[in-house]
Amino acid sequence: MSGYPPELRKLIKRVEETRRDRIKAPPPRRLTLDERDSLVKAWHPDYKPELKRPLRMGPCKGMVVYSAIADLLESWPLVMPNALDLSRIDYDVDVLIIGSGGAGLAAAWWAVESGVAPDRILVATKLRIGDSNTIKYQSGTQAATASDDSPLIHFLDTMAGAHFTNNPRLVKVLVEEAPMIIKWLEELGVRWDRAGDDYVRVAGGGATKNRLHCCGDYTGLEVMRVLKDEVYSLGVQFLEFHPAIELLTDPENGGVSGAILYNLDTREYKIVRSKVTILATGGIGRLHIAEFPTTNHYGATGDGLVLAYRVGAGLVDLDTLQYHPTGVAWPEAILGELIPEKTRSLGAQLLNIFGNRFIYELEPRDVVASAEIRECAEGRGIITPTGMCGVWLDTPLIEELRGPGTIKRELPALYRMFLRHGIDITVEPILTYPTLHYQNGGVLIDEWTHVLRPTGEPIMGLLAAGEVTGGIHGKNRLAGNSTADIFVFGRRAGIAAAELVKKTVEPPRISLNHLKPIIEELSKLEVPISRRAPILLPDYRGKAVLTRIININL
Amino acid sequence: MSSSHEGRFVTIYFNDEAFKVPEGLTVMKALEYAGIRFTHGSGCRGGFCGACPILYRLPGDYKFRVGLACQTAVVDNMRISLIPYVPVVPPKIKRSDVKPSPGYVIALFPELTRCVSCNACSKACPQGLSPMDAVQAILRGDLIKAATLTFDCISCGLCSLRCPAEIRHYLVFRVVGRIVGLFYTPKVKTIEHRIKEIKEGKYSKALETLASMKPDELRKIYDSYLKSGRLPEFLEVK
Predict the structure, then answer these.
(1) In this predicted structure, what is the pLDDT of residue B3?
(2) CB-based contacts of A203: which residues, under 8 Å, 6+ apart?
(3) A chain contacts of residue B194, beta-carbon cutoff 8 Å
(4) Which CATH number do you get for residue A386?
(5) Is A324 a catalytic residue?
(6) Which residues 377-416 in chain A show a CB within 8 A of chain B?
(7) Is residue A36 in a domain?
(8) N or C: which end of chain A has fewer CB within 10 A?
(9) Considering only CB atoms, which chain B residues are within 8 Å of A173?
(10) How far apart are alpha carbons A406 and A402 in whole angstroms?
């Protein structure tokens, strides 16, 4: 067990020296909207043009997105259209759900509730059922359930947090249905934190009312335990370690009619034909865009984006990403892992090397992250033993403000994570720096999760919900809105799927015809053949090993 | 990711093969550095999902130690086994049949009564929980205590592997947690009221107005709301 080396212990002294005065001092004031704008424009990675480029092909040709996302969208398929036998269908279902995080499982539940037979639903997932970002979520779910709050204020906070770039139609759905989601999950058995006979509602950055519903700091764990148990018990079919590698389309109308799955163990492909396909594939953190570490789970490689783009989906706001203000900057073993927003909600302050505060900690996430990047860039950060830069998050202050034992009670997961590396956060502060957290934008959808072409016309048979979609959070998401999103729109996807199943009489035809023009375009643009997608899993193998690898079929 | 591996190296043994890896990495990152590419046994990588339990031994120590590959730092000469899967099959629960009684739980998991209080489960918990106390609480009829003791369970299954009574701990605790959520958690009145308001359309007109406004107009409204703490009159709902 290591703990902090002596040079950092010296710097911690400064944090301790200013603590008493900081308790007494009034909080830094909230920034005006103009001040927020100028801070993010100066420091946030979203405003660095060198990280982006216009798309060179596909339905959104010309749209500027992060270059790493452009590369993903302009990749060779993993399979060629004529290389596979599509005549043998392995799974013939009404609804195929790709992904088993919060959005996928909510969709499955509501599809059953809306009349689809459970054994006619297949949930295919890359890793295990429930392996997702949802299971990691700590800071809670936003819903205007308090009597002094209202969906209107939730609407305005959400829009303002994204600098008014969201699709207001989708935000309206989000804020009106979020309270219902809290109740739905509770009726399945989720134990939201209580104070007497009311909820505990925690503050979140950019929210003007306390609106986060939590289950300790294991919120996602509790929600996913219940959802997994419930959806499994309903008798829905599951297929684990089977990522989707391509969608199938009807050769007549270009609508989506299933997917090709890949068995990670046996390396077989499997053909799924479905009347409706729901993309619930999550986000993109494991691409480590702009070299940032990430909070995301192992499978977050943006598969849904490229699958949807190849069948003609429109995209929105992929020129922005969310860097969570408080990722772990050190120790290296847990680099990039999340320090939940709740830590700041409970009173932990952000400090530079002099032990001084430099931002009101509960501004929207892009604002706080920008302020940290500024402190480091201007030499007021702390250099970690691995050469990174970070700022302090003064966690012992929580114990001073709210009494000893608060951290162990309110943040047991965080306490445990640092203690495993020799740091007791009840007495020592944390080194933090922004970490790649969330894909703000994504696939274009309408209020009932139908995936749209850039023209606004729906793609038949294809729905999408959760982080893979865009519009709800505009160019910056507020804390706790992603999990409101996955359940509100996951539910809608399940209901919409049931509707579509009722309307679809004939089983659809399947093909990979949509890949043909894409392949022509890729050759014309001379995209290197080594650039292939979906990526499925990140490759963290050491350089020394990779230079000596040969592949032999045993 | 700008961190470098210029520091010291340690040796770890995986499947009895020695690998030299940088000090300070987790077992998961160290095995990746050594050339292993995970498909199984790597999930959230943050200590929440239970995909990556490990058993390991340290030099000169007879004890079987447990941990999570994504949370355990490598130690020189440690010997590691990955446990990416524990064979436990869950019962299917019909919500309308769930009863808040220990009898219901024991009927689903009859092996609970075989617990001999050996505490092997608690010693095997990488979360530092006490599954044995929770099992005993269930047998004594105290489901709330059992649920509280196991709220932080990440379903890794290590306890079940070590259990001589073959108890399916994390599945038991999942059901007990749901029972407490369903039967022993106070209902909240404010949410019923809010959902009723929304269903009656109390906010829809005002939301419709907001949703049709231009960003500049919304910005002005929000700015004045931030200053005054109040919404403009035309948005007041009755």
Answers:
(1) 44
(2) A210, A212, A345, A362
(3) 144-145, 147, 179
(4) 3.90.700.10
(5) yes
(6) 386-388, 412-413, 416
(7) no
(8) C
(9) none
(10) 6
